């Protein structure tokens, strides 16, 4: 028998890990709910016709495909078989795949359930997705996404409230972050003004790498795409203008640029008079790479002034996409949304020791008994504690005290109750504080009061 | 463009459905936690070497297999290709599959993490599983399992507490159920006493169908397997003896039978003096079919005396398996566990209207504004409500009142706050109770107090 294993890029989660992950998801969920977002769930397994062509050529290759059940070769593409063409053959032997993100399933959901929902539809979704990326540190093939999106409204109020959600979630998590805001129309306006509008994708792709390759690298990449030195310099000047009021006159000649400036001003106006706890700023160099965004774009990074030990890419991102559901034949539905990088947030909270104390200790008390009769007595006492809302357990056998205390220590349980013959007779139980080592005798009701107070 | 769809046997969940499912999962989770069970999670994607051969030949066929990424044909079994043997080819082009249940992954988890956990290890797991069953009413290809299991202890205390967990969960859900208890050793003892020990599997398989095919059907099936009429009659007599004390002397000649009786008596002894809210009884006809159980077995059905309108199979089941981890090379680890049929429980609660009132209404108040200035003012007021822990929203545009109220009604929101010019000037907002239609003017603090009290 070979040693059991799990697929590369997947993980098991031990209890303390599940609880920490749950804490992050719960914090995000509670804020989503306060902001009026409603939960939906979609199946892990989608039709490949839903998924393919939505994530670019590279994305298609990273889809996990599920082999059709039964005699799948009966309907296989014979020519692809003869040519030994794996990619083509897959199209005929796998009609389903695993969810790759939560946005495409959401768009499909809105179209399929358009008569059961009311627009604007504010939904959140916290579910795993699967990508056949090469596994590496911090990158998994199965991981969770936490998304909130609004479908069916153009109002910039939603941009403002999604920024507030970032602000509030990270405040609750005790993490200082920088929230960056830009607008793809401003980038488009820059491209127009500089005269490289037909190189817009190359431009945003290059700018997106600024953090990694620096200005020299960006300029080199722009040059490679045939963008001249003068245009590069002009663009760099615009990208350095991080004040909306200073940038506005420079983009005056571009209709798109003016629209982008105006949109950001409206978002700021909504946030006027509202206290934010995090640093929020306009960042003209924020590009969000090859994304499908058309309006405002957001990104969240850890504030390295507050947390200098942290080296981490973005822990959240999102934006406005003018056409959410067009890919599924429903026109005129705009979308705007944000996503939390839960896996990275976990690593940051762990590194900074920001998980709440006691989060991973659910069991409050372990009973220890010494013979058959005290064991059964202890079982009844334990049941009363559980009914009183106190998580309790009993070592399964009345064995040696040492062995039972070792188990108590392994569980990290803060209290132990010893049940011997004396306790059975007197009805008073011996309660031991595992941290101080102190012991005292109490009735069950007293113990319930003590344990409730110590929660 | 074709209409979007999802694979057969899968489902989307609308917000009210997610909330109802979450209520069931939360109820089960809270009880698991009080009883000292800890959460683990395992990946949806397992190696097929972990899954295959664990669920019988039929189970292997129902596994969802994931096509290897990249040029999978390069390593394909050439002979299987030439023979067009789908089943054999699959072995060479798919090394991963979707989780089929939570027990096999748990066994794998215990073996892989044996040095990170302490035995007895009490875990619960609430995650989806996938089976390529033919979809039909109430049967899905992707569905949730909710399991609690103990690994590494023989103590019958766990059988007793798992029965308590059933009792408590269904009490909390407001559902009257019957919990049935038997022991595979008693069934084995019966087979020995009747002289059909070598037909044990056939016997349990037949008994398992009793509810569907009746005694005549069971006898016919036993006859088919070569079991004579006299043995059938004797067995039927034993199966009708639903009192442990009456059955004990009849099984006296079977060591297994005596052990089974003794085990059940120990379970009863643990439960002595403990109040149960549900009907718990020994049922010698409970067999749990082709399962791998070796000791106590459990099953839960809706109490049709209390809920005569419900026709539903079992909504929970479980038992003891002497060897949990042997399949992965770790000997001597006993397991016992229970499972909740969450999908069926959902249908029953829905049919009986047992979901709590207000469960599906999270949003408490919708702001309605009438021009740009009141809209931005309303946005700030709404933010204050959210910060005060009240789920609030604002219609995205200051449009016609009728349209905004229609949205409020569609959301089912209990309160609306109207913000017009008067409200902007006076600072008093108009609060409307959507059920009574009553309106009154209040400060924001007053509104916070009213909404908190009305939760």
Tell me what you see in this structure.
The structure is a homodimer of 455-residue chains. Chain A is of the alpha+beta class and 455 residues long. Chain A has 18 helices and 16 strands. The first copy, chain A, is globular and about 90 Å long. The two termini of chain A are 46 Å apart. In chain A, helix 1 runs antiparallel to helix 7 (157-173), helix 7 (157-173) crosses helix 13 (255-271) and helix 9 runs antiparallel to helix 10 (210-224). Chain A folds into two domains: 15-47 and 100-351, BirA Bifunctional Protein, domain 2, CATH 3.30.930.10; 365-454, Anticodon-binding domain (Rossmann fold), CATH 3.40.50. Chain A has an eight-stranded mixed β-sheet with strand order 1-5-6-11-10-9-7-8. In chain A, strands 13-12-14-15-16 form a five-stranded mixed β-sheet, with helices on both faces. The longest helix of chain A has 20 residues, at 15-34.
**Rough shape of chain A?**
globular
Measured by DSSP, the beta-strand proportion of chain A falls in: 15-25%
Multimerization status = homodimer
Strand numbers in spatial order across the main sheet of chain A: 1-5-6-11-10-9-7-8
Count of runs of 4 or more consecutive helical residues of chain A = 18
Helix content of chain A: 40-55%
CATH architecture of the largest domain in chain A: 2-Layer Sandwich
* Spans where pLDDT lies below 50 across 5 or more residues of chain A: none
How would you classify the helix and strand content of chain A by structural class? alpha+beta
CATH superfamily of the largest domain in chain A: Bira Bifunctional Protein, Domain 2
Largest sheet, strands/sense/barrel of chain A:
8 strands, mixed
Regarding CATH, which class of the largest domain in chain A? Alpha Beta
What name does the CATH topology of the largest domain in chain A carry? BirA Bifunctional Protein, domain 2
**What is the number of E strands of chain A?**
16
Largest interface: A-B, 110 and 110 residues
Residue-averaged pLDDT of chain A, rounded?
A: 95
- How many domains of chain A? The number is 2
- Taking all Cα atoms into account, the compactness measure Rg of chain A is 29 Å
Cα-to-Cα separation, first versus last residue of chain A: 46 Å
């Amino acid at each position: 028998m070979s040693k059991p294993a799990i697929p590369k890029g997947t993980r098991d989660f031990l209890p303390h890990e599940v609880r920490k992950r749950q804490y992050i998801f719960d914090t995000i969920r509670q804020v989503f709910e306060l902001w009026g977002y409603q939960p939906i769930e979609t199946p892990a397994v989608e039709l490949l016709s839903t998924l393919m062509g939505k994530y670019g050529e590279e994305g298609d290759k990273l889809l996990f495909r599920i082999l059709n059940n039964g005699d799948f070769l009966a309907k296989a593409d014979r020519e692809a078989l003869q040519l030994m063409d794996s990619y083509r053959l897959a199209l005929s032997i796998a009609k389903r795949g695993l969810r790759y993100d939560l946005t495409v399933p959401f768009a499909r959901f809105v179209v399929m359930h358009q008569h059961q929902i009311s627009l604007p539809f504010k939904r959140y979704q916290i579910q795993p997705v699967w990508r056949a990326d090469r596994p590496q540190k911090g990158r998994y093939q199965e991981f969770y996404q936490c998304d909130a999106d609004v479908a069916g409204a153009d109002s910039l109020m939603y941009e403002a409230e999604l920024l507030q959600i970032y602000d509030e979630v990270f405040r609750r998590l005790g993490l200082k972050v920088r929230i960056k805001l830009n607008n793809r129309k401003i980038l488009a306006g820059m491209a127009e003004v500089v005269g490289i509008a037909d190189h817009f994708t190359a431009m945003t792709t290059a700018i997106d790498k600024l953090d990694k390759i620096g200005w020299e690298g960006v300029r080199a990449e722009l040059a490679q795409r045939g963008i001249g030195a003068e245009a590069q310099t002009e663009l760099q000047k615009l990208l350095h203008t991080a004040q909306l009021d200073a940038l506005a006159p420079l983009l005056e000649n571009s209709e798109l640029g003016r629209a982008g400036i105006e949109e950001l001003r409206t978002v700021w106006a909504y946030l006027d008079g509202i206290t934010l706890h995090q640093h929020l700023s306009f960042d003209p160099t924020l590009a969000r790479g090859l994304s499908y965004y058309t309006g405002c774009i957001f990104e969240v990074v850890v504030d390295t002034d507050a947390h200098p030990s942290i080296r981490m890419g973005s822990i959240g991102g999102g934006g406005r996409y003018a056409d959410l559901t067009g890919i599924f034949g429903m026109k005129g539905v705009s979308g705007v949304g944000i996503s939390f990088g839960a896996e990275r947030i976990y690593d940051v909270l762990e590194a900074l020791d920001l998980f709440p104390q006691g989060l991973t200790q659910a069991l409050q008390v372990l009973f220890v008994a010494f013979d058959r009769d005290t064991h059964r007595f202890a079982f009844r006492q334990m049941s009363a504690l559980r009914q009183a809302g106190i998580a309790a357990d009993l070592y399964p056998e009345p064995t040696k005290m040492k062995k039972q205390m070792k188990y108590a220590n392994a569980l990290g349980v803060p209290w132990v109750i010893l049940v011997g013959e004396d306790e059975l007779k007197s009805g008073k139980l011996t309660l031991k504080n595992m941290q101080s080592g102190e012991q005292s005798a109490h009735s069950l009701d007293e113990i319930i009061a003590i344990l409730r107070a110590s929660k």
